[in-house]
Structure formats: C-alpha cells, structure tokens
Specification:
alpha+beta, globular, binds guanosine-5'-monophosphate, binds zinc ion
Length: 112
C-alpha cells in the first residue's frame, strides 16, 4: 500500500518519534504549525475517522489515553489542541488516521 504513514511505521521513511508501543506511534510533524506539533497514529492502516469501526475502536481509545502522557512529556502545561482532519473539505492530506497535538503557544480560538 502506498501510504506515507504506513511507511513511517515500517521505518521506510524516517521520523522523529516521541512515543511508540505495539499499536500506536507518535512523531513530530514535518511542518510544525505550533512550537509542539505531534502526530499520533495507529500502526494499523485506518484511512480516517470515517474508518473507525467496532473492530478497531480500541486503538483509537488507546491513542486518546496516551495523548495526555505525550502532552505532559512535552510540558504542555498550559493546554493543547487535538485535531483530526477527515476528508477533503477538512484538508486531510494523508489518508491514514492521525491526530494532531498542537501546543506550546496560545492557539487561535477560531476553529475554522
Ligand atoms: P493532514 O493535513 O492530513 O491533517 O495532516 C497531515 C500532516 O502530515 C501535515 O501536518 C504534514 O505536515 C504532515 N506530514 C506530511 N508528510 C510528512 C512526513 O513525511 N513526515 C512527517 N513527520 N510529517 C509529515
Ligand atoms: Zn497507512
């Protein structure tokens, strides 16, 4: 499968990892939009939020239970934002489910 993030999981494309376990990986975004900009992904290929199912939902819950630990390790004591773009209208550019963690500065309150 020609998926950029599957290649990062496989180690075929280098990344700056900040967290890894058996089922998920977190690494720094190549084009950071905040002082801290991390992507958290399931190691298995799920195309987007639309691809979450009863069979794979546990890995999504695991991502969300791990995000606070990543934020704490990054010292995002003032808070942070978690974003997942789903589909073209949201600007999803990589079709492998990922959650952006953004922090390290005061973020715009506008969601759009
Ligand atoms: P999306 O636009 O799909 O929500 O987010 C995709 C993100 O992946 C973007 O923020 C983009 O900067 C990041 N990205 C794209 N290619 C690479 C890459 O090769 N390495 C890393 N670390 N991030 C990437
Ligand atoms: Zn993939």
């Amino acid at each position: 499968m020609n998926c950029l993030f599957c290649k990062i999981v496989a180690g075929e494309i280098p990344s700056t990892k900040v967290y890894e376990d058996e089922t998920i990986l977190a690494f720094r975004d190549i084009a950071p939009q905040a002082p801290t900009h991390i992507l958290v992904i399931p190691k298995e290929h799920i195309p987007s939020v639309d691809g979450v199912t009863p069979e794979n939902k546990a890995v999504v819950a695991h991502i969300f239970e791990t995000i606070p630990a990543i934020a704490a390790a990054e010292k995002l004591t003032g808070g942070y934002r978690v974003v997942s773009n789903c589909g073209p209208d949201a600007g999803q550019t990589v079709n492998h489910l990922h959650f952006h963690i953004l922090g390290g500065r005061v973020l715009n309150t506008q969601m759009t």
